[in-house]
Amino acid sequence: MIYTFGGCVLDTQLHVLSRAGQPVKLRPKAFEVLVYLLEHRDCIVTKHELCEQVWPNQFISDATLGSTVRAVRQAIGDTGEAQHLIQTVHGYGYRYMVPVTVRMEPRAAGVSVAEGNGVHTPPLLVPEAEAVGPLTVQTIPPSVPHPMLSPGERKVVTVLCCAPVIPTADRVSDDLDALYSLMQVFYACVQDTVQQYGGTLQPPMGDRVLAMFGAPLAQEDHVIRAGLAALALLQRLDEEPRPVGTSVDVRLAVRIGIHTGLMVVGGLGEAPARLTALVGDVTTQAVTLQEHAAPGTILCSAATARLLQGRLRCTSAGPVLLQGQASVAQTYTLHRGSRHRPPSGLPLGRMLSPFVGREQVMTTLLALLAQAEAGRGQVVGVVGEAGIGKSRLVAEFCHSLEGRRLTVLLGRCRSYGGTTPYLPVLELLRHFCGLTEIDSPEVSVAKVHHQLQVVGLAPEEWAPELLGTSTK
Length: 472
Hints:
five-stranded antiparallel β-sheet; 13 helices
């Protein structure tokens, strides 16, 4: 098959891509992604569907998928900013945008064999003018092999279980419409919040909703995502108005349980009705934690709380008898308001190895800092492969500034913050003003006014601009 689109020609049989008449090199996985997008150009291809087709029986990270799509865009002359050919549909997947012409390439005729007597006959010679005419190909449908069961993969995942807390008065049989309205509001809030942090919803279990983080797409920060999703869900439900038509004036509350553990994750059934199965007791423990949580609280297992240490604030909540365990297990309550991290951005309590071999780079950073202090502003980019020590270098540089009259602010481009405009800038403002998630609007306004006065700016003039962006 030959696809012609946007000045490019793709031959799927020869595995050749050319743009403006010049051959373009493309990695095998990028080639498969491009072919799949072209084959399904009339619809939106979800990330999950793309991963299942290109990386079957594997669990890959968002970064791997993103880098592969970027390689495809670069090969066909598109960019993530322009998106003339491949459009990113946020929250769904990718869509091909330009018209595509498809044709079959006639190949050289081979030697045919006459039926019955096995006599070889030479290929039929056709005039050159007729060879370019329409080509009719008759194919014999291949036999469909019996589908093989794909082996599951052992993965550490985090499961969030939540259920609404509805007063008994709303459960009477003559008020089912009101109960249904409450469940609609509840499920919509859960769905939006889980998708915001990259989780995957499982089929509901009665009034319980399960969300999985870390599978089917691998996420190195799946525990943090689950914790932040739970906190965001509590805040959203607090702000959600009572559904219209509810006979009882009730505030929709929720109980949440979170557990992290090892499971076997794999597919059940055949595409497109393929389901992701979780085999193990992580789901059961998350449900048990949800049942023991008080209304409006988040109960975590010890494994989850340990991984959240230094990032989100957890306190001991006492022992709980988890299903399938002979002895009680310690549980923790996840509280709103993140613990402040040091300006370096490294987790609290992390043991660091000696910092060696970066003297020249540190000297360069200090020299650039001296120019900035002299009034010549500087912007420094630290680029390198994953794990080479970029964060450690920045941490050591910030540590070397202790005791000097300098202000260090920290903002991060988070993997789950792609849909939030200017998220690193918002974090810089929050860090600068000392804002936290548990601050009331009055406290936030007071902190912003105070910080503006410290730097010599008029709060009446600048506070509306900052509060309009940083506290939303």
